[in-house]
């Protein structure tokens, strides 16, 4: 899986992606959605919050209007998509900054029609405001992004990774002149290239059944030394609750 953005610094290319994952079974991750253009082209992931809202990354909807996009839920196979959900409103964080490590990379998408819970459609569980996430704990990332063969996966993929030490993540990205903030959380597998890749942006990072991160950006693709950077959802619970009205 790869993120979709490039930063002009000492390192010219920043991506986030799902590599070396495995297929997701129908109903296994019922809150995962595909954010697509009207031409049925997948661009990012997202998670269903409740009947009317999806949560994703702000960079996935930057410079876009609701009419540009649709949400596809109720599927793990993009060759067999579920019904399209039209987007009524895009709510990006007011302090989103793509020029500063994609700070506050979070957005809400309001639907015209509700999601109806079923075997293949469900709502993601949020952490508490400011809930701490243990370093080294196992996490799961999922998405329809680029796989190791360089092609987007039509089958939803998932990979097991681990929450990285915040200090380690800050130290590594300091080497390439990028900042890591407390509103971000990092994760990877330090022993094997596994994790998010291009077009996985906006997708969920799950720990103990809770949405702790949103795929944002990274150096390279699922690298063992450079973790992928996620928006830390636990620091945005108040913002989410304020805006899902």
Automatic annotation (TrEMBL):
EC number: 3.4.21.1
Location relative to the cell: Secreted, Extracellular space
SMART domains cross-referenced by the UniProt entry: Tryp_SPc
Keywords of the record: Disulfide bond, Hydrolase, Protease, Secreted, Serine protease
Domain Peptidase S1: 18-245
GO MF, one annotated term: serine-type endopeptidase activity
Pfam families: Trypsin
GO terms for cellular component: extracellular region
One BP annotation, GO: protein processing
Main EC class the enzyme belongs to: hydrolase
PANTHER family, per database record: FI18310P1-RELATED (PTHR24276:SF98), POLYSERASE-RELATED (PTHR24276)
Family classification: Belongs to the peptidase S1 family.
This protein's name: chymotrypsin
Organism for this UniProt entry: Camponotus floridanus
């Amino acid at each position: 899986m790869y993120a979709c953005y490039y930063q002009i610094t000492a390192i010219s290319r920043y991506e986030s992606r799902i590599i070396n994952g495995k297929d997701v079974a129908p109903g296994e991750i019922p809150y995962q959605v595909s954010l697509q253009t009207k031409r049925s082209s997948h661009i990012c992931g997202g998670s269903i919050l409740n009947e009317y809202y999806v949560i994703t990354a702000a960079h996935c909807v930057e410079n876009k209007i609701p009419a540009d996009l649709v949400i596809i839920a109720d599927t793990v196979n993009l060759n067999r998509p579920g019904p399209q959900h039209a987007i009524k409103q895009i709510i990006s964080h007011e302090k989103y900054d793509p020029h500063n490590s994609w700070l506050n990379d979070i957005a809400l998408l309001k639907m015209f029609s509700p999601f109806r819970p079923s075997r293949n459609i469900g709502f993601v569980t949020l952490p508490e405001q400011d809930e701490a996430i243990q370093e080294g704990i196992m996490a799961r990332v999922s998405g329809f992004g680029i796989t190791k063969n360089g092609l987007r996966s039509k089958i939803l993929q998932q990979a097991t990774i681990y929450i990285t030490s915040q200090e380690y993540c800050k130290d590594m990205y300091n080497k390439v002149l990028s900042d890591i903030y407390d509103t971000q959380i990092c994760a990877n597998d330090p022993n094997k290239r596994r994790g998010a890749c291009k077009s996985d942006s906006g997708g969920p990072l799950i720990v103990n059944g809770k949405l702790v991160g949103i795929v944002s950006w990274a150096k390279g693709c699922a690298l063992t030394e450079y973790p992928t950077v996620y928006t830390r959802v636990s620091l945005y619970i108040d913002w989410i609750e304020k805006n899902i009205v």
